[in-house]
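Preliminary data (for renewal application), iron/sulfur cluster complex.
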Amino acid sequence: MESEKSRNGANHYENVACPFCGIVCDDLEVGPSGSGGLKVFKNGCARSIAGFERPLVEPSPQFDGKNVSLEEAVAAAAKLIRESRLPVFGGLATGVEGMRAVMSLAERGGGIVDHALSALIYRNVRVMQSSGWLTTSLTEARNRADLFVIAGCDLNQSNPRFFERIVCNEASMFSDNPPKRTVIFLGEGLDQSAVKGPRIADVLTIPCKIDRIGEILDAMRAMQKGASISDDTIGGVPRATIEDLLARYKAAAYSVVVWNPASFDFAGGDLTVQAICEFIKESNATSRSAGLPLGGNEGQPSAASVCAWQSGYPLRVSFANGKPEYDIERYDAARMLAAKEGDLLVWLASFGDDLVPPDTDVPTVVLGTPGLKLSRKPKVFIPVGTPGIDHVGRIIRVDNVVSLPLRKLRHSKLPSAADVLASIEAAL
Ligand code: SF4
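Predicted structure:
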């Protein structure tokens, strides 16, 4: 339940949902800092503190580097879209309302839509589309899992409170005396420091190269089916260690393999996702096992869901022919800009200051967080607020099973991206 109380005469919010990574923790306490900004009083992490405590600045919109009114900037953006042969709507770091407005404008303007993190997410989507997968939700993992395998991802960077909220929780919804948990890190240099507390039994690390995780999971699939492997090592890891991992996996009542597709940044990274997913599916013949893909930052789950609701397809959709067309290679925004297939980039980044547009010399309209670290001046820049700080909104969690309401926490003149996009559409 959201709640609000007064502290020193100013609004102080409890159970605030945080939009700064995909797990969307909804237990933060945020209030005035005393020096004009916001302060995270409880349940923050480095990522959320950087987001909520970013100072409020309200710069003017710009056209060709010169300050203009919001109306003039909107009119200039509308003219660019109207005159564009094929506008590319990219970035798309926003909540549900912002993405709905993107879809509407892209349809009117005959453009294509693609999120900044699509290249990473498609390592998952390709597998889901081609061979299927069996995944779980954060809530199910939190309440049921007794074994977590963290496959190659440093969650303290991407989703800093994952262990605190989902793995180390002492209480469970289904048991007064929930079993202890084992956490196994598969990879090198992965931060284990957040895995602690009475709920945790063993914490193990199996050091291996990230690009050999698929090989290890494929070998485990074979061993699970009764094949014997005589090599001394599997994927660079002693065979006995992998046999122990498989034995622990078989003994678990509910195992969960966690990965972040961003970590599999090498040729054939999607094949590692596929190896994980096939292993999980086959493990369910004898026990309960599920995958849990994480990441989901920069509003990516919201963008993908809204695109699917409204067009029938996930991201990388074109409206150039007046109806939605889906092609994951052809409508890759970065590829289209590099090939000069798109002649205008409309970039939306409303959470942080580092989601910058790809380097392109096509004219660019940026709806962005003030202070966005742009390497070149866009044709039009319209500063927008952050959902969950400057205006209300809604965001979809990385497991795609819930959306959470976002609050307006401070007085700000920054408009929402949804309002700006609607104004641009009205001016087309
Ligand atoms: S883990 Fe993610 S959602 Fe939770 S507080 Fe940190 S940035 Fe926000």
